[in-house]
Specification:
heterotrimer, A alpha/beta, B alpha/beta, C mainly alpha, B: six-stranded mixed beta sheet, four-stranded antiparallel beta sheet, 12 helices, 10 strands, C: mainly alpha, two-stranded antiparallel ribbon
Chain lengths: ~270, ~280, ~260
């Protein structure tokens, strides 16, 4: 499912203009990372995608739906938003009930809800904690519960807001697997993240925002090699990009594997 | 400065210990980073160093922790104020809310300690200076960004001149700018060499760049202890779910593909990686 | 995040006075509002005491605007109720079976003036006094520290509840929670909205308790303070005079 912004401008009631004439088209099944400094408008952009905010001018389309004509609850069938703070949504007495909340709101049958919940718990690796009280879990596990709760809604579009916050190596690896799984299933995945190593390895397209504008938009290897652009977006280039730049490699690899290939080619030439 | 031996702690009602026979010593003025998967015991160790375990979070504790020679496991946090300070993940929850400006917020702890006004002002200025908050001194604590609030938490604690500063994942909830600011403050402190710092951190690249010493925890036990380059490049860390920097990963793969000589230690920072692969 | 603190700093005026002096002043004016009978005298106190003080403290415009905003609902409803339903014989206006009487309006005016004087003194107090300075002054005179802490933090932390509540609303709506509609639906929406707010607040409370402990909050013993609260002999004298006035007003009314 595609998400399109057509000439979208938005200002908060306080007067701050957060989005200025944004034109952006995310195609069906694309994986896009949105990066930018604090206050650039990334979260505002994301909130327009599921109808939490409506544009002052312009339109936002999710598939064939104009977000201005739909409620957030309706849009939640098409767009799943995983927020940064899991404690803003956890209220049920068990992880299982928590994950079931979304599918239940969709009006699915009890059997369907159950199977969606089980699948979701397996995806995030929390089957063993299904009956635990969410607040008895470590905060990084609570983040996984919130993720599972949105995944269970099987939305064609998934938005992940700073998903790697507070995750250890195993957690990041699991997240990587989840993102790859969503892509393989043809879902459209949008992430807001300042973890560029994660973005480089799993997202094909990068949109750089600054002060309400789209500063740059293109394939990840192209965007993530522009050091000045990234400095403006207040992010550190991915470690692999930094390394390959320092070694004078001809292009910017997005993963360790790509790096080794490029490096070998460079060495091959020297031998 | 810190001597931990045989530290074992089980939370009340838990089936297994959160810390098992932890032995650790940290020299004065060092910055010691604790790494480990979530649930390995990093936070418990931070609480044990500051008295919240076992006095706030109850459970059974055996073993000893000596700070500058003094046994502290029997001391509640109140007795350790001025010796140890704690900064944790959530910047907002560390603002007392009792004061309306940054300056007064930092002074809050000093007022409670009954420090004379003249000395209070000196310590305040020093804390503002180290954390780079001097320009924000008259701002409301609630009008600060996450990184600024975290620096305020650090300033409020170091104004009390603890000998040991413990930080539990201080940059976890911060953006890159905030993370840089916090580490700049820590760097300013280590430059002065007066405070010993124990820090838990998941971002290994930062640990590699800033720590004098790295200790790895897994399931409550110390599984590695030494210099950053030695520990963070070690393959055993993978088995414990601790991960490695992309620099180490890339260098290891290059090595495996015969693209780099095998006689040098693996790198953990960018500069080391560049040197390794040249 | 909006602040609930009304304080307006100034280099002159009441802002420079000791908080206790201002508190006693407000108390005396409240006593005046409650005890003085004639309408003319009530209004005189407002005009002769409050207005000049507000001007001196450079908050006159804000003070008058706030008083107006606070008083008009009272004045209007009292005027209507007392005017039409209080006993009296001087009819000013007839609307069918109802008659607006002068005596009723008079009573309404007196009552409204009392409220105006009372609210006015409270407003002036809040515009010219920092709550934390007032609390500090009270703590120095024996108010329990914990109570002072609760009052000041309530002022600062409650606005954060609002932004949290909004965050929770956003998160739950994004999971399909319907918040528009009938009473039943709105009632069912309460638990997913209040639950995280309460649970999250409890967790925050625990962390804040740890932070406070680290700042020696519960340490027994004398405290010092960074800010010196201004005071002077003349102010102390003024306070005694005000207290005496307060007592005199009350006695005069009672006897």
């Amino acid at each position: 499912m595609s998400v399109r912004f057509e000439g979208v401008s938005f200002s908060y009631p306080s007067g701050v203009q957060a989005l200025r004439d944004i034109d952006l088209a995310v195609g069906d099944g694309e994986a896009v990372a949105v990066i930018g400094e604090n206050g650039a408008g990334k979260t505002t952009l994301a909130k327009h995608m599921n109808g939490l905010l409506h544009p002052d001018s312009g339109k936002v389309w999710v598939g064939d739906w104009d977000t201005a004509e739909r409620t957030v609850a309706q849009l939640s069938r098409r767009v799943g938003y995983v927020f940064q703070n899991p404690d803003d949504q956890l209220f049920e007495r068990s992880v299982r009930a928590e994950v079931a909340f979304g599918p239940r709101n969709l009006g699915l049958s009890a059997t369907d809800v159950r199977s969606l919940v089980e699948a979701s718990l397996a995806t995030v690796g929390l089957e063993a904690e299904a009956e635990s009280h969410p607040y008895d879990l470590h905060v990084s596990q609570r983040r996984m519960v919130a993720l599972a709760a949105t995944l269970a809604m099987r939305t064609p579009v998934v938005i992940l807001d700073e998903p790697t916050t507070g995750q250890d190596a195993a957690g990041v690896q699991r997240l990587a697997g989840i993102v790859d799984g969503l892509k393989a299933a043809g879902r459209t995945v949008v992430t807001i993240s300042h973890d560029l190593d994660f973005c480089a390895e799993h997202f094909e397209r990068v949109v750089v925002m600054s002060r309400g504008h789209v500063l740059a938009d293109g394939p990840a290897p192209e965007i993530l090699s522009q050091v000045d652009l990234l400095a403006q977006a207040d992010v550190e280039p991915p470690q692999i990009a930094q390394l390959s730049r320092a070694l004078g490699l001809p292009s910017t690899p997005m993963s360790v594997e790509e790096f080794v290939e490029l490096f070998a080619a460079q060495r091959g030439h020297e031998v | 400065m810190i001597e931990i031996s045989g530290l074992t702690f089980t939370y009340a009602g838990a089936s297994s210990p959160a810390l098992r026979q932890v032995d650790l010593s940290v020299e004065r003025g060092q910055l010691c980073a604790i790494v480990g998967a979530n649930g390995a015991g990093k936070t418990t160790l931070c609480y044990a160093l500051t008295g919240f375990v076992p006095h706030f979070y109850r459970g059974s504790l055996t073993g000893s922790i000596r700070l500058a020679g003094r046994e502290v496991t029997k001391s509640p946090p109140a007795d350790l104020v001025g010796e140890v300070g704690l900064v944790f993940q959530n910047p907002f929850n560390q603002i007392t809310g009792a004061r309306f400006t940054v300056r007064e917020e930092i002074a809050f702890g000093l007022e409670n300690l009954g420090v004379p006004r003249q000395e209070m002002v000196e310590r305040l200025e020093e804390a503002l200076d180290i954390t780079g908050l001097a320009e924000l001194a008259e701002r409301s604590p609630f009008a600060l960004s996450g990184g600024q609030q975290q620096r305020l938490a650090i300033a409020s604690v170091i104004a009390m001149r603890p000998r040991l500063l413990v930080l539990d994942e201080p940059t976890s909830q911060l953006d890159p700018a905030g993370t840089r600011e916090v580490f700049a403050a820590l760097r300013a402190m280590t430059a002065r060499g007066e405070t010993t710092i124990v820090l838990t951190e998941l971002k290994l690249a930062l640990v590699a760049a800033f720590a004098d010493r790295v200790v790895a925890l897994a399931e409550g036990c110390v599984v590695a202890d030494g210099e950053p380059r030695q520990i963070l490049a070690s393959e055993t860390l993978q088995a414990y779910g601790i991960g490695e920097t992309r620099y180490t990963q890339a260098a290891r793969r290059a090595l495996q593909s015969g693209l780099a000589p095998a006689d040098r230690p693996l790198p953990v920072t960018l500069d080391q990686a560049v040197e390794f692969l040249r | 995040m909006t602040s609930v603190i009304l304080y307006r700093p100034s280099a002159s005026g009441l802002q420079q006075a000791n908080p206790i002096t201002k508190l006693v002043l407000a108390g005396t004016l409240l006593a005046a509002a409650a005890t003085i009978q004639p309408l003319a005298q009530l209004l005189a106190v407002f005009i002769v005491a409050l207005v000049p003080l507000a001007a001196w403290s450079r908050v006159l415009a804000l003070f008058l605007r706030t008083c107006a905003r606070l008083i008009w609902p009272f004045a209007l409803s009292l005027g209507v109720i007392q005017g039409f339903f209080a006993p009296g014989s001087t009819i000013l206006l007839s609307l069918g079976p109802l008659a607006l009487k002068a005596e009723g309006l008079g009573a309404a005016a007196v009552f409204s003036s009392r409220i105006l004087l009372g609210l006015g003194s409270a407003t002036l107090l809040m515009l010219t006094t920092r709550p934390d300075m007032l609390m500090l002054a009270l703590v120095q005179r024996g108010l329990p520290r914990q109570l002072s802490y609760i009052v000041v933090t309530a002022l600062q932390i409650i606005p954060s509840f609002q932004s949290r509540a909004q965050g929770i609303l956003d998160a739950q709506r994004s999971r399909g929670l319907e918040t528009e509609g009938g009473v039943g639906r709105r009632m069912r929406a309460l638990v997913p909205l209040i639950g995280p707010l309460v649970l999250g607040s409890l967790m925050a409370l625990e962390e804040r308790a740890i932070a406070l402990e680290s700042r020696a909050f519960m340490r027994p013993g004398p405290r010092t303070s960074l800010c010196a609260i201004p005071d002077s002999r003349p102010q102390a004298v003024v306070r005694w005079i005000l207290v005496a006035t307060m007592i005199a007003l009350v006695l005069h009314r009672v006897l």
